[in-house]
Model the fold of this input.
Amino acid sequence: MEDLLFYLFAFVVIGSASVVVLSKNIMYSAFSLLFTFFGVAGLYVLLFADFVALTQIMVYIGGILVLIIFGVLLTTKITGVDIKSGTTGKVQLITASVVVVIIAISLILLFTNVEWVNQEFVQPNTTIDSIGFAFMTKYLLPFEIAAVLLLIALVGATLIARRK
Amino acid sequence: MFEQDIINKFVTNVGESIQLMQPEVALLITFVLALVFDLIFKKTRSIAGYVAILGFIVTGFLLCTADSANAGGFAQMVAIDPFSNFFKLIILLASLIVVVMSLFSKELYTESRTLGEYYSLIAGMTLAMFLLSSSNNLIMMYLSIEMMSLSSYVLAGYTKEIKRASEASLKYVIYGAISSGIMIYGISLIFGLTGTLNLYEINSFLANADINLWALLVPTLMIIAGIGYKISIVPFHFWTPDVYEGAPVTITALLSVASKAAGFAMLIRFIKVGFVDSMFGGDFWAVLHLDWQHIIALLSVLTMTLGNLVALWQTNVKRLLAYSSIAHAGYMLMGLTVMNDAGVAAVLIYFFVYLFMNLGAFFFVLLIANKTGSEDIEDYQGLGYKAPAISVCMVIFLVSLTGLPPTAGFIGKLYIFTALLQNPDFIWLAVVGVINSVISLAFYVKVFRNMYLRKVDEAKETFKFSIPSIVLMFALAIPTLLFGIYFSPIVNWAEQSVGIFLR
Done:
């Protein structure tokens, strides 16, 4: 059952992600991104990462994706226009393909051959408890620094959005 | 209760850590105060700049007066050690000089532009670079690199009505997003391989485990790609010329010195703490598993050769200095190649010297752009007579960037080559470095020739510069000369600062 669900979600993720990349219409790309995010959230659930799955849905689907779609809709000029993907030169295309294939092969070899560290598996009821605990103890500094990072991002965003 | 104990322990730890991290706290306060003061005093455009200068001075004071600590803070997330302190001082000095430089910039002070965010983002970026130079944990490294990048993306496009600035900013964001994506993928693979993000734990895992070499090489190369992007190593340098040309001169100067220093600090710490076998003491670093020496040597040769060769064809001085800064990253990587304390000390010395000469060269570009509105090398003709005082300073910087005596640049190169020559395997690298220095002479002389030898007769008018700007120019030029003659304090200081906190 779990395996079946995994393959289902993986199929959704890979299928919709290829639509995102290959589609020439930017609206189709934006919408299929929805399924990619959703599939990834499903994979998180299968890994017992309930909190991450929830955040994935709330932040990526609820926030970022809606923003992207609004952005696409409001800049009316691009909705109708095909993204030109046939104009890149042959040299770039060949080098890029070679690099991508090399990376893909090395990653596949890596994932199949390497002995990964497996921590002892305990099925948790909910991960929110332990995540909160870790944030407030061991990972306190990264947690606080992330807040400063967001402040910087906010300042930068208002600056870019401001008219003058 | 068990959890209560852990919490109590961490509360004490947080108290101690904050004591150690006073300079960072001061910078954080500076960042926030600069934003707030800009809101209150809307009339004074430079108010945030003054706050930043004051904050940097306080930070510098805290940094210099702090006890020479050698400890980890926040559950080993960061390390406060002589090594990070050296880099923090370099970063702080560079940011301070850049803020002062910005006060003279005509490009920034156009009619209606508000500059509060500009100065506060510089303060925020400095905080990120401070954290980067003492991060001990991969997640902390990633966060601070992102924080540094986010502020520099915005700063690079600050003059957003200028088309090439927005273009630079956009290019920077796109390349940056990809490289940090690659980097965090590498980090996740390292986590899967070793089960930890802490560099010490990674080290002890690697020391005891029988690890697949290939599996270690792929993620580390990915992380090197992320760091290499920040310090613009070939082949991750593509953004450098465009961003350096498009961004305001002050930001170009900041990126070429401070963010490069932070990146190098992180690279050195990543290798030294993560991969050096702690069983072997002494000067030589016995590296675990990977052949770091040849990886770094290869990157170094590529970086300096490409930087210098492409610089020969540049006609825009900012772009020329961008390629020159790529080449200098290559020279500094040479120092890292030998993988011993002498090599790291040479890198530290080089950075200290590079700070003055590179910021000075950019300040010259800024002052000339203020007068002529151009950065083209053709417009530098006859400047030696139009602006005699600052041109003399520029010549000092150019000689120093080439690495000729009696300037500080020579001392920087001398120590790097000395470190290399101690290792018979890397004499070829030293030869490549010398050949590269000779090539670099060609394009530095090109600037000089335009300033002094061409269209000299037409140079009737002279440019007037304000007294403070000339003072700053000399404040950068005099150390460049002075440390070329009297360099033992710097060398001593650098040699004492190679100590990285190892648990």
Remarks:
- The interface with chain B takes residues 106-107, 109-110, 113-117, 119, 133, 136-142, 145-146, 148-149, 151-153, 155-156, 158-160, 164 of chain A (CB under 8 Å).
- The first helix of chain A runs from residue 2 to 22.
